[in-house]
Structure formats: structure tokens, C-alpha cells
């Protein structure tokens, strides 16, 4: 019995009772608060959609991108019409592509009819260009973000970050991928033809009615647990099928969901190699059968389909829900083969505990449905931390609740030193900007802010990336000087 018929049967058996769970913890399991049956069928009738790469012009040596945040409509099942938001389109956004050392200008026009911001999640940029809550874009206004691309090749993303309305705006469709290239990564024998053997995979769940429509609404329980949907989309498409050539294929995984934690795997136990964390190449590829990702996290993986017969298909699935997200159907190879090298990067120099000048504690907690970091809720007018430029620090991040959270910080990248008192798993040892904190978890991350200061009027943010928690104030801000 597949997941859908199981859910149908269960729903019948429960005589119309909502499929609801409101226990503590286990945020990765259960189908959230929806009474509706998942629309994921396990039959892949739609074409996989690869978001197009954004066009740009070159003006005075700078790449200029024009982005319009707009409203639209989308039919996700061919039936009902959902009111959506998108960037240069109805839903989601084009993939921004930049190279290390590029100078970029992003002209962001807000046509949403409401205030917003646009944050470059994972990009190391001056705080005034960060697109956090202080860089508001009013309706009909255009905000210009101009920065140099100073970081290594990596898979990032962009989404709104206006305090109090991030969750509904992302849910409506405002999210896109932002890929940075560099010479080190391009020189490697990795799949790198976008849309042919290198694919973005933006995974988002939505609480869909039977006709495939959704609208953002949160119950009291959704506010506490984060909004989870019954149906999971990949690049905005339900039940998609992707032709993959019988060779290595690279997937850039992004958990772009408001709150759901996934545990991704291929059917049949097909192994894959993780080659990059959120901030680029690992020193060496790591073989995995599955990977857990909390909201905001990214991972680049390479899967070898060469041993699978042409015509066969493999499903990409979430082990937490049992839902198959899309299928990869193997077709004959026309692209050149690649062989993922055993050494990926020699430029990754880890910071070490001995370099740290201090430890800074962040305690994520909940009380009566309210969310806190260090017992405080976000206040735009209060500065919470003062980071010291170039100082190496350990962030001691603790989830003191029985529910899933995670931790994202702007302006710098970190590496995990420990998880629950022991060395982190190898695939968490790369550079990151977001880290999963299941109930009562504790991690130590080592970080160094270099290059950019952040003033009192344009601080950087740190927050839980479960968007309902972020909007409810599980966020703080800091200067760098
Ligand atoms: Cu949280």
C-alpha cells in the first residue's frame, strides 16, 4: 500500500478526524496539522521544472540583475487556482548565477502591495546589502543591492526577510536559488551543465486542499510547531519526473520549507556522494544513503546513474514522511562522463578550538508557545550581540526545548566543532550557515567575521529558520566592529 492510499484508508477509518499530531518533538515526522490528504501520489505525471537562470546585463564591469517581486496565480494540479507570489514570474524565482570576484547589482522592485525585503541567504555581503529586516522595500519601491562576490563556490538562496511576514511571503512562493561559481570548483571533474546534469532541487511542503490550492493560514499549533503542509513540491511542481542520463548527476538540494525537516534518500538504497555543504566543497566527497536537512540548509550531492538500466527509474524520497518527491528516469547518455574526484578542495582551512578567544552562548527556548533566544524575543530596536571583526569565537548553541529548531547566522560561515558533545558527522564538518537542532540538541560552531563590519543601524541577524518561529521573534541582531 502506498503512502497515499494508506492516508486515504486511515482518514476513512478515522471517520473524518483530522490527521493531526500535536505532541512535542519529532518535528520531522507526521504530516503536520492538515486534515487534508497528501496530494503526492507516487505516480510522476508532470515534467520536472528547472528554474531558468536569471538574465543580466553587464554595465561598467558589474553584472546587473533586475528582479520584480510580484503576485501571480498557479495551478499545481490543473484544477484550482492558487494566489501566489514570485520573482519575475508567478511562483518561485529564477536562479541567480554569480562568480567569485564578480561585482553585482541587484535591482529589486516590490510589486507585492505590501512591504518586503530580499535576503541573500548564505551570501557574505555588507550588512546594508543583506536584505534583512532593516532593509525594507516599500510597495512600488526599488532597492539596489550592490556587492562583490567574495566567497567560494556555493549553493545559496534568496527569500524575503521582513520581520513578521517572512513565513507567509516565502510560503506564497518567494524563494529562488543563488549559485556562486569559482575556478577551483569549475576545474573539477563534476557534473556542471545546469539543467542537464546539474539540477536545483528546491523542496517545499504546502498544505493543499483537494483541488491543489493552498493559502497561508496558521493554527495555534502551527505557530508553535511551524507550518507544515500535507503535500511536497520540488521546484514548485507536484509529482515530477526528470530524465537523467546514465552517468553522474549533481543535485543542489535546498530545504526551502517553512518548518519541515526532511531525511532525503533514493529508492532502492542507491547511495550518493555529498560534495558540498552550504558554503561549498567538502575536502573529500562523503558517501551517504540519506541526508537530513532542516529549513534553509543546502547540500550538493552527486548520484551515479550509470549502473542503472536505461528506462528504469529511481525515486527521490523523504524518509520522514514516506513521500516520494520526484522520480529520476534514466535515459541514454549524450553528455561526457565525469568521475567525482576523491579530493575536492585543498583550500578549506578549518578554524580550530585553540584559535577561539571566547565562547558565546545562544539558548533557544519555548515557554507557553512563545519562542526565545537567550530569553529574549526579537526587537528591531535592541542590539543583542557585538561581534568583534576578525576574532575567532565559538558559538555554543543549545536547543533547550522539546521541539525542532535550527540556527542560521548572517554575515559569516561556521564549522561545527561538536554535536551533543562529540565530533560532528563528517558531512557536517564543512562550512555552513544553518545548523539543525533537534529537541535538546547542542552544537558548538566556530566562526570568524572577516571583511565586513555591521553598524548599529544595519545589524546582521541570527535566528531559527523555522519561519513561524522567526516571525514570532526567535531572532536576534548583532553588530560587527
Ligand atoms: Cu525554531
Keywords:
globular; 3 domains; 6-stranded mixed beta sheet; binds copper (II) ion; mainly beta; Immunoglobulin-like; single chain; 481 residues; 31 strands
Overview of the structural elements:
With 481 residues, the chain is mainly beta. It has five helices and 31 strands. Strand 20 (313-318) and strand 21 form a beta hairpin. The radius of gyration is 21 Å and the shape is globular. The termini are far apart. Mean pLDDT is 93; it is low at 1-33. Residues 405, 464, 466, 469, 474 line the site of copper (II) ion.
How many domains is the backbone divided into? 3
- Mean pLDDT across the residues is 93
Q: Report the bound ligands by name, code or SMILES.
A: copper (II) ion
Number of helices: 5
Low-confidence stretches: 1-33
The end-to-end distance, rounded to whole angstroms, is 59 Å
Find the CATH topology of the largest domain. Immunoglobulin-like
> What general form does the structure show?
globular
Strand content: 35-45%
Name the CATH superfamily classification of the largest domain: Cupredoxins -  blue copper proteins
- The CATH C-level name of the largest domain is Mainly Beta
Biggest sheet, spatial arrangement of strands: 1-13-21-20-15-18
- How would a textbook summarize the main sheet? 6 strands, mixed
| Gyration radius from CA atoms, angstroms | 21 Å
Instruction: Provide the structure class.
Output: mainly beta
Helix content: under 10%
Which architecture of the largest domain per CATH? Sandwich
Number of E-type strands: 31
Amino acid at each position: 500500500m502506498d503512502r497515499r492510499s494508506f492516508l486515504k484508508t486511515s482518514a476513512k477509518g478515522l471517520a473524518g478526524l483530522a490527521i493531526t499530531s500535536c505532541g512535542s518533538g519529532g518535528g520531522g515526522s507526521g504530516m503536520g496539522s492538515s486534515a487534508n490528504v497528501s496530494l503526492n501520489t507516487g505516480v510522476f505525471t508532470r515534467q520536472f521544472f528547472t528554474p531558468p537562470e536569471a538574465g543580466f546585463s553587464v554595465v561598467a564591469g558589474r553584472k546587473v540583475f533586475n528582479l520584480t517581486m510580484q503576485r501571480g496565480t498557479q495551478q499545481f494540479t490543473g484544477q484550482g487556482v492558487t494566489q501566489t507570489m514570485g520573482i519575475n514570474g508567478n511562483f518561485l524565482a529564477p536562479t541567480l548565477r554569480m562568480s567569485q570576484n564578480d561585482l553585482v547589482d541587484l535591482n529589486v522592485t516590490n510589486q507585492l502591495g505590501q512591504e518586503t525585503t530580499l535576503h541573500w541567504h548564505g551570501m557574505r555581503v555588507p550588512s546594508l546589502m543583506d536584505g534583512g529586516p532593516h532593509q525594507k522595500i516599500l510597495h512600488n519601491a526599488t532597492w539596489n543591492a550592490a556587492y562583490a562576490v567574495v566567497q567560494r563556490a556555493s549553493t545559496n538562496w534568496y527569500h524575503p526577510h521582513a520581520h513578521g511576514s517572512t513565513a507567509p511571503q516565502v510560503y506564497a512562493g518567494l524563494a529562488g536559488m543563488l549559485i556562486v561559481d569559482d575556478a577551483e570548483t569549475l576545474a573539477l571533474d563534476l557534473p556542471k551543465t545546469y539543467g542537464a546534469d546539474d539540477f536545483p532541487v528546491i523542496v517545499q511542503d504546502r498544505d493543499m486542499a483537494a483541488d491543489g490550492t493552498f493559502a497561508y493560514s496558521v493554527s495555534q499549533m502551527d505557530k508553535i510547531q511551524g507550518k507544515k503542509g500535507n503535500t511536497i513540491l520540488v521546484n514548485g511542481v507536484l509529482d515530477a519526473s526528470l530524465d537523467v542520463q546514465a552517468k553522474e548527476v549533481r543535485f543542489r538540494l535546498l530545504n526551502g520549507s517553512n518548518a519541515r525537516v526532511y531525511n532525503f534518500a533514493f529508492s532502492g538504497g542507491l547511495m550518493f556522494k555529498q560534495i558540498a555543504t552550504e558554503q561549498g566543497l567538502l575536502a573529500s566527497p562523503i558517501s551517504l544513503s540519506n541526508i537530513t536537512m532542516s529549513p534553509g540548509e543546502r547540500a550538493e550531492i552527486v548520484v551515479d546513474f550509470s549502473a542503472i538500466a536505461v528506462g528504469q527509474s529511481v525515486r527521490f524520497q523523504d524518509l520522514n514522511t514516506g513521500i516520494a518527491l520526484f522520480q529520476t528516469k534514466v535515459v541514454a547518455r549524450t553528455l561526457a562522463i565525469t568521475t567525482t574526484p576523491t579530493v575536492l578542495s585543498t583550500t578549506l582551512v578549518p578554524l580550530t578550538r585553540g584559535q577561539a578567544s571566547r565562547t558565546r552562548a545562544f539558548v533557544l527556548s519555548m515557554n507557553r508557545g512563545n519562542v526565545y533566544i537567550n530569553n529574549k524575543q526579537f526587537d528591531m530596536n535592541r542590539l543583542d550581540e557585538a561581534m568583534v571583526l576578525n576574532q575567532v569565537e565559538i558559538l555554543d548553541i543549545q536547543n533547550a526545548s522539546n521541539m525542532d529548531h535550527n540556527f542560521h547566522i548572517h554575515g559569516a560561515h561556521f564549522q561545527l566543532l561538536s554535536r551533543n558533545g562529540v565530533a560532528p558527522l563528517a558531512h557536517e564538518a564543512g562550512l555552513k550557515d544553518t545548523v539543525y537542532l533537534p529537541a535538546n540538541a547542542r552544537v558548538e560552531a566556530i566562526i570568524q567575521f572577516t571583511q565586513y563590519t555591521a553598524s548599529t543601524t544595519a545589524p546582521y541577524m541570527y535566528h531559527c529558520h523555522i519561519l513561524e518561529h522567526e516571525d514570532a521573534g526567535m531572532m536576534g541582531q548583532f553588530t560587527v566592529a
